[in-house]
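REQUEST ID: PR-0412
SUBMITTED BY: lab tech R.K.
PRIORITY: routine
TASK: structure prediction, single protein chain
INPUT:
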Amino acid sequence: MKIGDADNGVVTIASAHGAVATADKLEALIRARGLMLFARIDFSGDAARAGLAMPPSQLLVFGNPQAGTPLMQAVPTAALDLPLKVLSWEDADGRAWLSYNATEYLRARHGLDADAMKPVSGVAALVEAAAR
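STATUS: complete
OUTPUT:
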C-alpha cells in the first residue's frame, strides 16, 4: 500500500516488518550501497527516556555528498531537505510504515533541475526494498 499526499510531498508505504526491523534493513541497504548514514534518531527511545510513551519511530538521515552537494551549491535551501531522510514508524495498530519526501516535491520546492535530481531519485527504490 502506498499513501501519497500531493500537497505535502510525503510518500508513505507499508512495511512487511516492524518499524525497528525495517529501520535495520534500511540501514543495511544504505551501507551496502556505499551511502553515508549520517544519523539514526530513535524518537521513541528518546521519548521513553523522557518518561513518554510513543510507538516505535526512527529517522534515518543518509546520502552521498557527491550527489547532494551539487544540489546544495545550486540552491542552498536544498540543504533544508538534504541529506535524504526516511522515517520508519508504527501506527497505533502496530502496522509499520516508511515515509519520505518525494523527489519531485523536493525538486519543485527548491526549483532544482530535473536532471540534477537523478542522483537522489533512488530513494524510492531503496525504501521499497526495505519495506519488502
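NOTES: The helical segments are 19-32, 43-49, 65-74, 103-110, 114-117, 123-131.
REVIEWED BY: pending
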